[in-house]
Amino acid sequence: MGSPRREGNSEILLDRALKGAAEAGAEVKKIRLVGLNISGCTECNDCYDDGSCSTADDMDRVYRVLEWADRILIAAPIFFMGLPSQAKAMIDRTQRYWVLKYVLHQPFPRPANAPPRYGSFIGVGATKGKRLFDGAISTLKYFFDAISVEPREDLYLLIRMVDEKGEIRERETELDSAYKMGKKLAEL
Ligand SMILES: Cc1cc2nc3c(=O)[nH]c(=O)nc-3n(C[C@H](O)[C@H](O)[C@H](O)COP(=O)(O)O)c2cc1C
Questions:
Q1: How far is the CA of 77 from the centre of ligand 1 (A)?
Q2: Among 83, 90, 143, 149, which is least packed by CB within 10 angstroms?
Q3: Where do the domains of the chain lie, and which CATH numbers do they carry?
Q4: From the CA of 81, how far away is ligand 1's center (Å)?
Q5: pLDDT tens digits, residue range 125-164?
Q6: Distance 107 CA to ligand 1 centre (A)
Q7: Of 1-10, 46-55, 107-116, where does mean pLDDT reach its minimum?
Q8: With a 6 A CB cut-off, is 165 part of the ligand 1 pocket?
C-alpha cells in the first residue's frame, strides 16, 4: 500500500482486491509503506559486491516479503504524475535486485521450484488526463523487471477522478472491479 493516506481510496480498493485474492485461496500479506522507516537509495553501490543492501531499516522486512510472494500488487495514488515518495523509496531500494540480475548475473533469490510471479497495480488520481498513469506504469515496469515479476497490465485497475478521502466507497462498480482483479491475480 503506497498511499500516505490510511483508509484512503487506494487502501479501500486494495482491501477489496485482497479480499478477492483471499477468497480465491491466496495467503495474503499487506504492507503499509507509510508506517515504515524506509530511506531512499543513496547509490552507495555497496550492493555491487554481492547484491545485498547495507542500509539497515524497515526495508529488510519488505525484502523478505518481496522474495516470498508469488504475486505483487501495488496500490497507490498519482502524485505529480508519478508514484508517491513512500512507494518510490521502496522501489528505489530494490536496486540491489537490479544489480543482482544485470551486473552480477545471478537469479532472483527464490526456491528453484517457485511458481512464476505476476504483478499488478491499482492506481487512483483526481484528474482525468489520458496520460495520468503513464509515469507510474513505466516505473512499475522496471520495478517488476528488477524483482523478476511479470507485469500483468491487463489486470491493472486505473481509476480517474477520485480525490476526497474515501470517496471511492461510493463507486460500487470500481470496488467490484478491484475484488475481481484480486481474485484473477490469485488464480493466474
Ligand atoms: C502531493 C499530491 C500530488 C497529487 N498529484 C496528482 C496528480 O498529479 N494528478 C492527479 O490526478 N491527482 C493528484 N493528486 C490527487 C490524488 O491522486 C488523489 O487525491 C487520490 O484520490 C489520493 O488517493 P488516496 O486516497 O489513496 O491517498 C495529488 C495529491 C497530492 C496530495
A1: 5
A2: 149
A3: 9-187 (3.40.50.360)
A4: 9
A5: 999 999 999 999 999 999 999 999 999 999 999 999 999 9
A6: 36
A7: 107-116
A8: yes
For residue 101, CA distances in Å to 36, 51, 94, 96, 146 come to 26, 9, 11, 9, 7
Cβ–ligand 1 contact at 79 (below 6 Å) = yes
Give pTM, 2 decimals. 0.97
Checking if the pLDDT of 112 tops 90, the result is no
The one-character DSSP state at 113 is T
Strands (E) located in the chain:
71-77, 118-124, 150-151, 157-159
Q: Is 82 helix (H, G, I), strand (E, B) or coil?
A: strand
pLDDT in tens, 31-42: 999 999 999 999
Q: β-strands 157-159, 150-151: how paired?
A: unpaired
Q: Name the residue of 80, 132, 174 whose CB sits within 8 Å of the most ligand 1 atoms, as the mutation to test its pocket.
A: 80
Signed CA dihedral, 135, 31, 11, 89: sign only: negative
* Interatomic CA distance for residues 56 and 94, integer angstroms: 14
Question: Does residue 168 line the site of ligand 1, with CB under 6 A?
Answer: no
CA–CA–CA angle 57, 61, 67 (5° rounding): 130
